[in-house]
Amino acid sequence: MMGELIFVVKATSMGFVVSKPYCDTEPYDLVIEENGRLLRIQVKSVFTTSHWGYSISVHRHSKTHGRPMIQYSPEEIDFIAAYVVPHDVWYIVPVFEIVSRAHIRLYPEGAKRNDGALFEKYREAWDLLRLGRATSTEAECEPRAKTKKPK
């Protein structure tokens, strides 16, 4: 909940309109309105480090037995907003980057290995929200809209 409040303060200070769903039944925590589009944001935060980085869970737990983990999909959310509390750093990660993952690792102090900084390009990437879309590859990840034939 603290991460959500900090996100709201940061986002509104940058001029974004932020809304919160009335109930906690949706897979997203907050909604950003930008350029006439509503973006669904799942907020995550982390306080402690492990293996020189910060691990963020990018899935949710099922309420039923037998399915302990449910991955977020582009039909449910648009972005993960991951807050690394000790560094006061946000990562704005498009959902298509995490759909096949249970966790992502963030390295605000720099990665020890060359392949460890996969998500550094999303550090403080608030511009992705300002554009009102994930990235230029968003169209490749979303289902194609069916066009209706004129009558």
Overview of this protein structure:
- With 151 residues, this protein is α+β, with helices and mostly antiparallel strands.
- Helices cover 14% and strands 28% of the residues.
- It has helices spanning 2-13, 127-131, 138-141, and strands spanning 17-19, 30-34, 37-46, 54-57, 59-60, 70-71, 79-84, 89-94, 103-106.
- The strands form three sheets. A five-stranded mixed beta sheet has the order 1-2-3-7-8. The chain has a two-stranded antiparallel ribbon with strand order 4-9. Strands 5-6 form a two-stranded antiparallel sheet.
- Strand 2 (30-34) and strand 3 (37-46) form a beta hairpin.
- The protein starts with a helix and ends in a 10-residue tail after the last helix.
Largest sheet: 5 strands, mixed
Shape: globular
What is the count of helical runs?
3
Structural class computed from helices and strand pairing: alpha+beta
Strand order of the largest sheet: 1-2-3-7-8
Helical content band: 10-25%
Q: What amount of the residues lies in strands?
A: 25-35%
**Radius of gyration based on Cα positions:** 16 Å
Order of helices and strands: HEEEEEEEEEHH
Distance between the termini: 50 Å
Unreliable spans: 135-151
The count of DSSP E runs of length 2 or more, i.e. the number of strands, is 9
Average pLDDT: 80
